[in-house]
Design brief:
- With 259 residues, this protein is mostly helical.
- It has one domain (2-44, 53-258).
- The protein is built from eleven helices and no strands.
- Helix 2 (22-42) packs across helix 6, helix 3 runs antiparallel to helix 10 (207-221) and helix 6 (100-128) crosses helix 11 (225-258).
- The model has no long low-confidence stretch (mean pLDDT 82).
């Protein structure tokens, strides 16, 4: 119980910091809209390709945009570590009688909640633009759960980088190097049947692909539990492993890099 309270303390502080920044709030609202409208129009003609698995590219792409929001939303988690270190707040956190692991989990939770807000905006706008979910409103909570789990994993990766480096420039260089390939070697933007064989092989080694495919099944295919459950299990395992590794690295390294 004390651990959960510590996690919520860190999470609430992060959320308040986010809400006090009007620019951050506005960016959180408009960024998903830009991605949805931009990519939805640029690649709209791909629906005419033989074997395209959806009635429109927007239907196909919406799960991919949810994954993009999860990926790039999670990427900001580690930046809070660098910022807290610079302003001295991280040292204050470390001096408090709270678990070091709760700092990591609290930050990851705040990023997940913040990104969940953006995910809801994406879904709302997508539905207004004509996208329909094959599983109806009952599938939406599961769609959000999978996307939030991806956010949790990406924020863990980002926090790990933030614990290891001190400079924002280095942080973003490393995070982009890690996250951008995860996006473009997944099924986010195009069906895997339309990509070269070598890229398809890489995509099937990418846990993001399985999260996207599960969301896509829920929104386009329906209640096909074999596909949904398989992807969900992989995403849960991915998030759990990343959270464990991130916590271990943060606990072992952050005090050294804070000195």
């Amino acid at each position: 119980m004390r651990f959960l309270q510590d996690c919520w303390f860190v999470c609430w502080r992060e959320l308040l910091h986010f809400l006090r920044s009007k620019v951050s709030v506005l960016a959180a609202i408009f960024q998903p809209l830009v991605w949805l409208l931009l990519f939805g129009n640029i690649f709209q003609q791909t629906r005419a390709l033989p074997g395209f698995p959806a009635r429109s590219y927007l239907d196909f792409m919406t799960p991919g945009v949810l994954a993009m929001m999860a990926l790039f939303g999670g990427a900001f988690g580690g930046m809070t570590v660098i910022w807290d270190r610079r302003v001295g707040f991280l040292s204050k956190l470390l001096a408090l009688p709270i678990s070091r692991a709760s700092i990591v989990v609290g930050k990851m939770l705040s990023v997940a909640l913040r990104t969940a807000f953006q995910l809801l905006i994406v879904l709302l706008v997508a539905f207004l633009l004509g996208v329909r979910s094959a599983t109806g409103i009952w599938g939406i909570p599961l769609v959000l759960l999978i996307a939030v789990l991806l956010t949790f994993a990406f924020s863990g990766i980002s926090i790990t980088v933030g614990a290891l480096v001190k400079q924002p420039e280095t942080f973003w260089a490393v995070v982009n190097f890690l996250t951008v390939p995860l996006l473009f070697t997944s099924s986010a933007l195009f069906p895997l049947e339309f990509v070269p064989g070598w890229l398809r092989t890489i995509a099937y080694l990418n846990p993001v692909t399985y999260g996207i495919n599960s969301i896509r099944t829920l929104m386009i295919g329906g209640w096909h539990w074999n596909e949904i459950a398989g992807g969900l299990v992989i995403v849960v395992l991915f998030s759990t492993i990343v959270a464990g590794v991130s916590t271990a690295i943060f606990v072992s390294r952050v005090e050294l890099t804070t000195l």
